[in-house]
Design a protein that fits this description.
Layout: E1 7-9, H1 10-30, H2 37-49, H3 53-59, E2 71-73, H4 74-96, H5 100-119, H6 123-141
Antiparallel strand pairs: 1-2
Helix pairs in contact: 1-2, 1-3, 1-5, 2-4, 4-5, 4-6
Length: 142
């Protein structure tokens, strides 16, 4: 019996990435770090509760059935979301503490990664692939 592969429709992944980029820009240009809580809390909810409010809202705007869209690997997206949540969390806390340089560094990293992913290159996927290659090579050396 084969296992069902969990996936997420690509438009929902891109919606989540877009919200990250927009929220980071709003935080930068308004000076209100609270905008970072939109993707941060949504990402945390997705990771720990399996419910990402941004993606759930995005589902309302899909024109076709979710399975009709190009699927994105669920596990890979969880890995990517973990990186995004860590960067957004460090950025948010840094801005709250007045450590603006660190806040900008981490929010710039996540905004660039999300924007580049919208354009078609997934930084998190590349990191995940390289990590798996490293683990595989280590098993060959033992």
């Amino acid at each position: 019996m084969s296992e069902a592969i969990r996936s997420i429709p690509r438009p929902l992944v891109k919606t989540n990435q877009g919200v990250i980029v927009i929220s980071v820009f709003l935080a930068w240009f308004s000076g209100l770090e609270w905008f970072l809580l939109i993707p941060l809390l949504s990402g945390l909810s997705g990771l720990f509760l399996g419910f990402n409010p941004i993606m759930q809202l995005g589902k309302l705007f899909l024109k076709k059935e979710p399975k009709a869209y190009i699927p994105e690997d669920w596990e890979q997206q969880q890995f990517n979301q973990t990186i995004a949540v860590i960067c957004l969390g460090i950025g948010f806390i840094s801005f709250l503490l007045g450590w603006n340089v660190i806040g900008y560094i981490f929010t710039i990293m996540v905004a660039i990664a999300a924007f580049v992913a919208i354009l078609g290159f997934c930084v998190g996927c590349f990191i995940h692939f390289q990590w798996n290659q490293y683990k595989y090579r280590r098993t060959l050396q033992q």
